[in-house]
Structure formats: structure tokens, C-alpha cells
Protein 1
Amino acid sequence: MKHSSSSLSYHDARRSFLAIIALRALFFTVLLFGLDRVVDFGSNPYLLSTATFLGTLMGSWIAFQRVRLFATLILTGTLYLLVRGGFEIFFQLQSQTPQEVIFPFAQLLHFNLAFGLFVLAYLSAWIFWRSYHAVTLEIVCFASFLLYLFSGHRHFRFSDAPKIIGELAWLFGTTHLTILILLGATLALLLIAYLTIGTLPWKPRADKYGKYLKSHTQYPRLLGGGAIVLTFLLLVGGISRQIFFQYHQSALSLGSNGVGLSESSEEAIGKSPLGFHSALGSNSQPAGLVRLDGDYQENPFSPMLYLREGALSDFNGHEMVEAGKVYDDDISHSSLNTTFTRTEDMDLLERIPLVQSIYLLSEHKTAFGLDYPVSISRLKNPAPAKFKAAYKVYSLAPTYSREELSIYGSGDPRWSNEKRNHYLKTHPDERYELLARQITQGMTSPADQAFALADYLSQTSIYTLTPNHDIDPKEDPVAPFLFGDHRGYCVHFAHATTYMLRALGIPARIATGYMTDLSQAKDGHILLRMSDRHAWAEAYISEKGWVPFDTQPEQVESHADTEVDLKLLEELMGLVGPGEELFDEDLLEGETGIEEPTPYELPGKELILPILFILLVLLLCTKLYLRFGWLLPSAHRRNIIRRYRALTSCLADLGHYRSEGETREQFIHRLQPPISFDNSLLIQALNRTNYQQKLNSPSSKELEQWYTSDMQAIHALPIWKRAIAFLNPASCFAFLSGRLS
């Protein structure tokens, strides 16, 4: 076929055929290697990729032959049975030692998997070349598979499969949510690109008898196609940005059993970083590395270690919220960019100094440390590519025992009446006091009473990430837990304990931060994860300070707890060295060349919505031009072409396109049924105008009659089909790609 501007040669189609085979094989290979990282096939991915390539090659070749698919499937199945029979005979001839039995069966499993992928690739390739709608089916199946694969991350449960989210988050030093959104946007763009490549105008196609069909087309309109691609890029990028900012705070504040990251004191007063909605599951994202610069064998909560970040001591009638420095003055409330110092409280007994170097791997707003921090100073970041910030905490760590606490009272005699009443503000529901007194009957020691409450909840509560309590926002969210099914997580336990302690006249509050297991530490180094974020109740014991009374449920229904990644811990240990302290930010004032980098932001909804509106308007204008462009003033020949284009645009929206080498008359005849054209007079008018003298062109009145006659065949279709066709933008894309002819 001679190459021209209006049609593509056989060599173009052949190159397209080979390019699509290569792209499909490459796509299968990348997909298999990616899935192998996620689900671990157990077989060599190179073997599986080879099988899919051979299946793609064979399916593509068979699609253009006169061989029936059923015959090839019978031949392939027969070959499989012969190979399988050979394996069986080979097994029987071997001796029956365990090693000699297991090895052949393992090879058979590899063969079954490779053969299954071969058949899958073969069938998909055959359908791809035989059916124009195969690309849509493949994209729907692939998108459904991706949704199923990543469905484990619903509600920010990033510890669930696939683990590749966590691996990429650590590799690039970002959050799981960021990786999930970027991965979703990338896959969406790949699906769009695959849809574009799979429906290229010059894509060859075989009919049901294997006959080679050529698409009659022009080269795509690069300007229009480029505008569509750019619009899709902006839309995907903008939508991804909106999704990120919509769920970013939720992922941070709710990514670990409903426990959030505290804000600075001024911003957090009257608020709570906790939530009583369904727990969002553990998040295995690394949060920080803690190095204990000294032994702490006297830890009264061993092997657990509590790192306090904030406190909730004010009851707002609904839940516990932050009260700020006025009351909780033992909390540093310091940001990561400032230093903090206070005078040691000499009235607190049974404490030793302990230094912690903390290197953060995720974003935090407030510094945290062990129990009672005396000073917090910034450290030089040893690895900015990995750590977000680094600081050193000097704490007075407790060394008391549980037995020693029993002889002390509660509260601090130095408190004012206002402060004491603040920590004793009770819940109006009398059931908290009745239950608390029932549990602590006969006990007089505040510490013993607190331990009794914590033990009661530990024995009766069921730890679950999905308590499923249907609660009105104005109602008490703790009551369905404590006076109901006892299903909840740390937020429920901490609130219930605090309410009952206050009902007994014991000053109490809720602490937030991290609880980690020292048994998984190595050489004094502790790897904190987002799943270690925690909320626990604290009571003030005289001369001891705020003491944790934490619930450790004996019944666990669901908890995505995982072992600490020792390999990652060792890697981080190799990055940190002796801490080098830094000065405050105010010492840098007046220095030149010190600027905060300006973060790049994707366009927001203020730009996305106008772009989307412009895109819809352009599609609508294109559609109207294709359907009614013949109404515009134009030369007689141009008017005939526009009327014919109106006819073909209707057919394109109904899913009918003209093939290469197919005349207009053959195209119209091929459409019967479902569209019955008796004899297209409009096509005759176009042919007479193109190939005969202008004197033979129909008059305007005749043209109007012929156009009306041809459109009656389309108007005879059911109204719902015509309505869907009008909403279908296929003719617009076909016009921009040069396929509308």
C-alpha cells in the first residue's frame, strides 16, 4: 500500500504490531517482578516472565491465523497432560527418600505456575487482537486486581499486605500515605497510557477468521492529543494532591490505634489528638530511633518503656483534652527546633538521671522523652536523607517499685485548690464511681486502687481495632465500652481509667506518646514505629509524680503487631554517632545564606476545577461541532463533508469505525444490523463531489433530504442508546486522533 498523509502503510501497521507485542511482554515482566516482591511466587520470576512472553508471542501469532482458538487450546492442554504424565512416570521410577520425593513435586509446582501464566498470556493476547473492546476488559480486570491488592491498606492499615508500601516509604524517606498516593497516581497514568496505546488508530486487528484488518485513519492530531494528555496529567496530579491533603492529617493522627501526634501547647489547648472512631490499625512505618546513653535496669515498667509526648488533663464534658502549660507543667511542650530547660524537682524521690538521643524518622510537632524531661537540646542530624530531626533529652527517670507506691498518698501538696480540682474534675455519669468503688472495695491506698482498676480492665477488656460502637457525637464515647461489650483500644482504656480514678478522688490524666518493648532493643538502641504510639492513664502519687497505670488486655481480637525489623535497626545504628548539640534558631538571626526551602505544591482545587470545567466545555464544543458543524456557513463541498462527519461521529459514539481499505459503502453495509441503511445517499453525494465534476454535486435541498434520510437509520435506534451515544466522548477523541473518517 502506498504511504500517504491520509492512510498508514502496511509497514507502519507491522511496526505497530511488533511494538505492541514488545510493550505487552514488558508490561507482564514488570508486573510479575513487582508481584513477586509482594506475594513471593516461590518460582524464579525470570522463568515466569519467559512463559508469559512465549504466551504473548504465540497468542499474537495465532490471532492472525485461520486456526481456531478451541483447537489451539486442545493442543496446549494435550501438551500439558503429556508433560504432567512424564512427571508422574518420573516420580514412580525414583526411590522414595524424602528428598527425592519433595524435589520433583517442587519442580512440578513451578511448571504448573509457569504453564498457567503461559495460557493466561496466550488467551489475553489472542483476545486483544481479535476484539476491539479487549483493552477495556483488560483495564477493568487489572484495575480491579489493584484495588483488591491494596485493599489491605483501607483505613490506613499500612502494616497489612502488600509490604512494598512500607519498603518504598523507608527507601525514599517519606510516609506510607505519600507512597500509596504516588503509586496510585502512577498506576492510573499507566492504565491511561495502556488504553491509549491499545487503541491507537493504526493498531492492526484480526477478524474472527484471522483475516488482517487495517484501520482507515489519518495521523493523530498531535496538538489535540497533546492537550488531552496534559489535561490528564494535571487532573491526576491535582486529584492526588487533594487526596493527600484530605487524608494526611488523618493518617498522621489516626495511623496508630487512634493515637495522634501532639501539637504545640498553644495550638492544642482544648483539643484532643485521640479519636473514638474505629481504630485505624497499626502502622509499621518507622517513627524514630532512641538511644539510651546509660543503663536503665531500674525501670519499674520493664520491659515496657513509656516516652511521654503530651498530656490530656481537662475534661470538656465529652472527652479529655489538653490543658496546656498552666496545669501540665511537667510536659516540655517544646517544638523540635527549640531547646528546653527547667529546674529539677527535688521533691520527686526514687529517680535517676538518664540521657536519651532521639532521631526522628517521621514528622513530629512536639519533642518527646522519658517521663520527666529536665532539658531538651537539638542535635546535628547525622543523616538528613533518613532522619527528619535529632535531639537529646535529659530526664529524671523513675526507679520506684509497685510495692513502694502503696504507702504513698495522691496529689501534690504544693498544688493550689484550682489545680487540684482541675485533676479531680469528674464525669457526670455516676456509673463510673459506682464501678470504681465496686472494683476497689476495701482498698485505701491510691496506688493499689489504681492498679486494681488497670488490672480489672486488663482482665475484662477485649483489644480490638474495630470496636464498632455506634455513638452520637454528643454522647459519651466511653460508656458503650465500659458499661457495654468491653471492646476497645488504648483510647477507651485510658479514658475509662482516668474517669474512675477521679471518681475515687485520685488526681488523674491521660498521657500520650510512645510505649515500646525494651526486649526488642539492641545495645541500648530502640526502633520506634507508628504502631508504638499509645495513650495511657496516669495518677499523681505523692513524692513520685505522675505514674502510668496502663491497661494490657489479656484478650486480643485484632492487633497488627509485628516484630521489630532488626536489619533496619542495625542500619540506623550505623548512621548515628556521638551527638553534636546545636544552638537555638534565634542565634542564626542575621546570618546570610540560611533559608528554608520552599516546598513544591501541586495545583489545588482552585485550579483543578477550572481545568476540569474547561475540559468538559471543550469536549462539549467538539461534540457540537461534529454533530452540527454543517449548520455553520461554508462552501458547498465543505458542507457535504461536515454532514458526513456528523453521520460518522454518531456511528463512532455507537462504537462503529471504518477499517482501512474498506470503502464507505462497505462500511455502511457492514453495520446491518443493528443499523439499517437502505442506501446512503450522503455517501454518494460525497463520492460524487470528490471524484466527479462539481456540476454533479447535489443541490442544497437534495443534500438536506439525503442527510435526513441517512440520519433516520440512527434515529430508529432505541432512545437510550442514542442518549448514551451523545454522552459518549468517543467521537471527540476519534476526531482528535484522526480516526474519524
Protein 2
Amino acid sequence: MDNKPKKKSELNATETSLKIIVFYVIIGFTWILLSDQVIKLFTTDPEDLEIIQSVKGIFYVAITALVFYYIIHRQLDLYVNTIQTLKKAYIDLDEGHNKSVKLENKLFQIAYYDELTGLPNKFMLEEKITSYIESHPKDALIGFIYFDIDEFRNINEVKGHAVGDYLIKSVADLLKEKIEEPNILARMGGDEFVIAVFSLQSLDVFMTTIEAYLASIRKTFILDEDHFFITYSAGVALYPDHGKDYLTLFRHADAAMSMAKAKGKDQIVIFDDEMVLLIKQQTEILTQLRTAIQHNEFSLHYQPILSLTHDDVIAVEALIRWNHPTKGFIPPLEFISLAEKNGFIKDITEWVFKEAARQYKAWPIERKSFRISINISAVMLMQDNFIPNLSKWISEDNIDCSKFTLEITETAVIHDIQKSIHVIKQLKRYGFSIALDDFGTGYSSLTYLQKLPIDTIKIDRSFISSITESTDDFHVLRYMVELAHHLKLEVVAEGIETPEQIQMIKSYFVDYAQGYYFCKPMPQTRVLEYFKMLEQVKKEK
């Protein structure tokens, strides 16, 4: 026997049914008994009673039919309403499930994919690499390439974040076309990306593949109607040689990328153990750089710039030197790039500018055109507050800007030609002379030369040193000088080290020269001695 307790719904149905039956029985018996008694009060005629009984029966059937119609209709309404409520509940439940699935998918997308590019993010990348290592404990070979866009911060500052986002998405789209599964391209944030290559066959094939991937983004992009040549710096770490987990691979690839930046950017560097020591050294230098100005550790050296027509000094280039109290002389290449990355370049530029102005009076200046050249960092040039800061320095020290030439690198200019033109025009209003430094190392030198409001071009030492009569550059140099003179620009040849180079640049009518052949960079007192020596030579002639 089934002794299970009945459900509440079953009890309610039984109770309702019994109530209806009891109600019907009571009404029926009451009608039969009372109606007959009432009829007899009015008539006892058999024929009348028969007729009345027939009418009474019809009336009873009609009344009970109406009662049952009401009861059944009411129950059916309840049933239909219950069914409709259940259907709506099922629909709501289904919609709720769909919304839950969509929300779950959206949360997954947010958690594991980059919103701007649609690429996997760092969390997805970590899961993929960790999972691959776990599933291939003995034969896993992974190439981890961490890279970013060179000078992206300048583009963001000059053109705004919307243009920066457009560049990021464009780079991502170009690389997505190249990289196929199981390899993965992920965005780490900002302008930083990672390419993970699985199942490597050989290092040579791997590097060739990576170089092909990254070559697709090393090109000119049109950003807000301006042309920007985009390069990258990349660091490579390999599993298991350079790390046996995601975090170690990431850290070592980051170290290799930092090394690529330090070496001049626009290249790929593979991690090695010496980089860890180098990074520690750079961290120490950065810490010490913070107090170098306060402790008077910087000094200026000067290198003369000579006229090839009159054989006399027409200018000097001011070059910063760092004399560390314990490490001794630290070359500018080891700290200038660090200063640019970490915001110290402003303080260094201010110190150089003001110190050169302070020392200007000590030069035995006979020609009014004598100038001091000062290098302006590309990072400084592109900052919106560069001109306001410069104006402040000029007013604080009452500096005569006509006594100075500001040297701006060609690579800084071509990153944003319109911004550069605007800044240079403002500098010239102050009275500065402008020189385009490192000329001949960029990609569009001759194209942009006529657009820039400059006074001088300085042909880079690497270009001068590579020229012989058997090279094409031999004729390019002549073209450069003729073009510059046609545009009424003066020409300085840097890095002159041999008599042959002197004869070559003289034959091409180069205006000025500087280099070790004449004088290496020295403190002001020693350069002044060099001046006296030149004067003595002139007198003897």
C-alpha cells in the first residue's frame, strides 16, 4: 500500500470536488422535497400536477445546467489561466536563461579579450601558455615575443587618444592576417602586444617567421591626414631555455625588449642572462640620475664647428657629461634614453640650456654670428609644454636666443611633420637658429627638407664615414649639398676624422665641419686653449 503523503494540489482538487457534489446533492433534495410541498398548497388536480411536474423538471434541468456551466467554466478558466501562467513562466525562464548565457559570454569576452582590438588579452594568453606547457610536459617549445610601437606616446600626445587607438587597431588587424592558430596574438594594454608561437622547429625558422610578421607593421601610416613611419622594438624569450612558466617568460621578454629600446629601437633582441645584470645597472643609474643635478655631477663639454672657407671657429656644440662620484664617467648614451623614458629629460635640458647661457660670456667672441648649439630631445620637442617651459627659462635667465642654435634630430621631425613645423616656427620667433641633426639617417630627408623652416643641416657622421668614390653615396652627398644651398641652407659635416674627408667635403662646397680631426669635445677651458692655438697658427701663416 502506498503510504506516501499526497501533494497539496491533489488535496485541494479532491476537496473542491467533494464540495461541489455535496452542494449539488443538497440543492437537488431540497428542490425535490420542498417544491412538491409548495405545489400541493396550490393544487391537487392530477392533470395540473403532471403539467407542473414536467415544468418543474425542465426548470430543474435548466438551473442545474447553468450551475454546472458556471462551475465548469470557472474551473476551466482557472485551468487555462494556470496553463497560460505556466507558459509565460517557461518563456520568462527561457529568456532569463538566454540572458544569463549572453551575460556569461559577455563577461567571458570582457575577462579574456581586448575590447578595442578583439584580440585575446593577457589573462587569456597566460591560460593558453600555461595549458600548453601542462599538456606538453616534455616536448613543449614556445617562442614568446613581446613588442611595442616606438614613440607611440608622442603620437598619443600630439594626435590624441582616438588617433592612437586607430593606430593600435590597425596594427592588430595587420598582424591578425598573418598569425594563424595554434599561434596567438594578444594585446597586453597600451601599445604592447605579445605573439606566442607554439611547436617551434628551429630558431632560424622561428626568427624568420617573426621578422616577417613584424615587417608588416613597419611602414608609414596615415594618421589624421599626417604620415607617420612606424617602427617597433621586440624582445624574445624561449621556453624552456629562458623560463619554464608564463611569468618568467614575460619578465625575460620584457627585459629583451628594454634592451632593444636601449640599442636604438626598431629591432628584435633575444634574451640572454647578461640582460638581467644590465637591467639592474640601468635601475641603479636611474636612481642616481634623480639627484645628479642637485649634486652638481653634470658638466658641459664643447666641440668646435669650423668654417671651411675661413678656417676659424664659428660655433661650438654643447654636450652634456656625467661625472659620477663612484662610477666615474657615464656616457650620454647610457643615461639620455633612460631620462627620456622616465621624465628626467626636461630637467636635464633645462640645466644644459641655462649652463650654456651662463658660460657664453666666457667665449672670446669676435664674430657676432658665434653660436652655441644645443641638442633638443625628440621627446621634449613633441611635448605640448616644451615651448611654455622654454619661454620660462628664457625669461628667468634673460637669455639672448640669437646666440643659440637648437639641434633637432631628423627622426624626431618625420614622426609628425606638421607638429614639428609648428614648433620650429615658434622657436624661430624667439630668435633661435635651427639645425636638422643626423641628416641622412632618416627615411624622407629630401622630401621634407623644403617644408621645414630650418637654417642648417648637419650631415650625420655615419653617412660621411661610409662615403668613398666607389659608392653611390659619393654622388648623393653632392646632391644633398647642392639641394641645401639651393634652399639657402648652410651645411655642416659631422664626424670628420681624416684629411681625405676634409678634401672631399671641401670639393663639394660644404660650409662647416666638426669632428675629431679638428678637436674632440672638451671642457670650455681646454676649448679656449684650442682657440688660442688656432689664432697662433693663423698669425704664423
Protein 3
Amino acid sequence: MPIRDLKDQISRLPEQPGVYLYVNRAGETVYVGKARSLRDRVRSYLTAHGASPRTDALLDEADRLEVIVTDSVVEALALENHLIKQRAPKYNVLLRDDKNYPYLRLTTSEAFPKVVVARRVERDGDVYAGPFLPAAFARRTMSLTHRLFGIRSCNEVITGKRDRPCLEYDIKRCLAPCVDSICSPDEYARAVDDTRLFLAGRNDELVDHLQERMREAAEAERFEQAAQLRDAIRTVETLRDRQQKMATAHLGDRDVFGVKTGVEGASVLVFQVRTGRVIDRVELATEVRATRGTAAEAEVLQAAVQQLYEDQVPPPEVHLPMALDGAEPIEEWLSDRAGRRVRLVVPKRGDKRGLLELAARNAALAYDARFNETGAAHYDALDLLRVALGLPTLPRRIECFDISTIQGRETVASLVVCEDGRMRRGEYRKYRIRHSAFDARRSALDEHFLDDFAAMRQVVTRRYRKVLEDGGPFPDLVLIDGGKGQLSAAYEGLRDLGLENLVAVGLAKREELIVTRDRDEPLALPTESAALHLLQRIRDEAHRVALTFHRRARAMRDLRSELEAIRGIGPRRRKALLVRFGSVAGVRRATREELTATVGAHAADAILAHFVATSGG
């Protein structure tokens, strides 16, 4: 195992905090991790083989170890986040939102801020809100800030010295800070504050501010301004009333995490609660395959917390369904990012626990929608099959062969592929058996069965010669529709290519027994076994594909044999007749005009004369 070659280097690692990186032969970083003590953490990998398929794959691929020493675990955590984001190692859990919903950015770093759409959150001092889903909602909200508060939409450098405002002021969509006699910096700053409250979802506080300013405008007899503020209040109140009713006054500001892991990957659902109201949800997902269980969920959850708050400022509390290992440095890192204390909390009862369970149910729904949880049932079947056949790994990729023939004529074969319990139709293959390959295997005593075995050997050889040329992918299990003879023929084909280490089994149709190379007696699985049902489904699909292809080949043969007897009808005209009429019967029923339009008058006369002669007319 390559990790053993690093044993001497690991023994010399310092007992200090830091980050370690595993690199493969190609120089690619395949895993990044942090540690309180680099020597202790990395040394644990020497005995980690067998912990999970992902860990085994990592240990088999790792060729080189690199370490970076830091002053504290918090610095190591921040550096780990940066390296994972920068290098995207394939064995790290890297969560992402494939939909890439937009944010709204209030450019408070400018003297006269504006609201623009942003695709990512930057640490530039501006205010970000979102993500918005659907994406069109972001632009509608941005337009609302222009109409309600008069926030500018132009890219002009504002000095206040412009002679006259633009059309946006005339249609009441901008306060015109470009003309200082119309809008002073203080007045525009109040509009920016209102916009900030609006984007943060603090609508109750915003309504109070607007009502106070409306009363002041009315008392000063600025009735037009008071009417505009009144309309803004009504709009904000309407939006507030339409918001989700999932609100509890004492919940305050917090984020609530739900997680669902499975064989296909993981989904994380985050409810963002502000002033006791759920104002948004963030959905993250990863396709890094994980096992189910508390340990896998904790790993995904920790990655989600670190990666989400790499781009966002965390609230005072983050609610999690379980405690994280090394929670203290994570809290310290989050507090440093927020500029105040941030706590990781695991609620046990009450409304807080209820919202946590709701987030978990939503995460499960998100997982089902993304990955289709029927994969979990497939995983159980594959695991049962692994145990029954004594396979070293889960048979994620199964390739199945079937032969279809009638008395050795028009022999064809099919290959179907099943990956993680799902049929991969795009990888199906159909083969016409080359009869020259039968000559060395024919026997006057038992011609039919030897032809069947030779066909299996030929198609297996052709398939895996191509796989060798392409460099994979190789199957974890080869399934043969047939018994001991067909299985032996398949192994002969694999042996010709030096691939006899691939595992192949046969599934006999009548008894539904599994035939293996290493067992004298066939293996009988219980009739209710999910593993047997999976093999039967794959075998039946291969049989369906082979039979359909064989029927089509027979139809082509019949058409060719009938038309080949007609003088003047060569391969090109036979193909034209097949395309136009579909069968010999179709050609026989065709009129002279239809035949003439297809192959010409002379050939049409020859076809009609042939059918008249053969029918005895």
C-alpha cells in the first residue's frame, strides 16, 4: 500500500497544528486535512485501511505527503478551507449549490451606494443579501429598491454637480443624488439605511422608520413626500404579510442545519432565521459517495459549516443536529469572521429542536429529488451480493452478456451495463457474431452448443479488448446468461487478454442458480433475496436486448434472401426497398408505380415477375 512508503516521513512530523496534503503520482492534490497534532493525525492513516471505500481509495492513490505548520488550530482550519476551495481535492467533501442563485449587493463601499446583482459573496465591505430563488426574484427585488427608496441604478460618478437629473428621477425611481440641490448626501444615506433593512428582512423595523418619516413630512406639509412614504409602507407591509409563517419571536438570528447522506452523496439544507423568521433557505450538495451513519453525517456537516461561512458572515448561533469534533476551534474561527461571539448549538427540545427536525426532513427531500433514494435499496442489494460472492469490494459496475441464436443462424450478442443498481442504457452494446470464429469450434456431435460457447468467448474477447484499448472502465463483476459451459467460455476470452483476474459468474435461467469458477456446486440465493432480484433484472434486460436484436437480424436476413434471388436487385436497391416498404410482405404488396418510384421501371418489372412466378400465378 503506498501509504506504508510514507511511514518514515510520518514518524518525523512535528506535534504541532497544521494542514496535511496527500498528492498522487500525477502531482494532483487528492486530499487536504487539518490537525491539532500533525504527527498523531497523519499516523492514524497507517491503520485506516478498511474504514470506508473512500478512505481505501485515498490510501491507494496517495503517493506523496506535504504538510504546512501553523500557529494554531484556527489558522489550520482557515488554511484548510482555502486549499480545499482552491484545489478541489477529489476525496474531500466539497459542497456546492449547482443552481448558483444570485445575490444582491448594496455597494456601501461607495459614497452613494447602489444595488447590483452579484453571483458570489466577496469580503469587500459591501452588504450582500440572498441567495435569491428563483433568480428572477433578485432583479424584481432590485427594481423594488429603486421604486420604494430611490436608490440609483446608474454607474455615474456622483459629485452632486450635475445640472439636471436624468429620466429615472422624473419617473420617481431615483432620488437624484447627482444634483445636490434635489437630494443631499444625508437624505440619500437614509434611503440606503432603509434599503439595508429591507434586504436584511427587517421589515417591522423598516415600517417603523418609514411611518415616523411620513408623520414628519405630513407635519411639514410635504404631502407628496408623505404620500410616497405611505405607498412604500403599504408595499413593505404586503411583502411582510406574504412571508413564511414559520416564525417564533424568541428564536432571534441563527442558521439551522439539516443533513442527509447516502450512497450517492449528501444534501445539506440551511434555514436562515432572522429576527425569529425564516427568511431564506440554502441548499448544498456533494456527489462524493459516503456511507450512511452518524460519522458520515458529522463529516459532511463540518464541511458544510466551514464552506458556507467562508463566503458569508455567520449569525450569533448555528444550530446543528449533532456535535462536531473539534467544535471549539470552529467556533473561534467563526467568531473571528463575524467580529463577535458565534456559538455552535445542538438543541434538544422545544421550538428550536422542532425547526432542526424540519430542516432534516427538507434535507431528505432535497436528497431524494437530487439523487433518487431508490439508490439506497440498490446499495443494500449490492452489499448482499458482495457478501454472497465473497467479493473484495462492492460490485458497483456489473456488465452482463447474453447470446441469441436459432440453430446457429444469425447469432447475435448483447452487453448491458448496470452501475450502482441502475441500468446505463447509453453504454449498451450489440454484436453480430462473426461466423469465421466458429470454424475451429464446430463439432459434428454437438454443433449448436459449441457454437453458443464460441459466441460467448468471441463477444467477451471483443468487448474487453476494446476496454483495454480505451483504458477502462473495467467491471467489478461480469454476469453471464448461462451455466458452467458459458462461464468457462467467457473466462477463456478473458484469459486470452490477460484479464482472468476479473470476477465472472453465470446465472442459469431455470433454476436461477449462480455458477462460479471457484465453487464446484452452484450457489442458491433465497428467492426473496434483493441480490438475486438485481441479478435477474440485469440478466432479463440483457436477454431482452439480445432477442430484439436477433429478431431484427432475422427480418433483415429474410428480406435479403428473398430479394437476392431477383436479377438486377443489388445491395443498394435491396436497402432502398427495405427502407421504403419495411419487409418482403410490404414489397410484395407494393404497386408497380410505388416500386418504380423506388428502384426504377426495369427493376420494378423484375420484382413483379419474380413474385408472380413464386406465387404460381
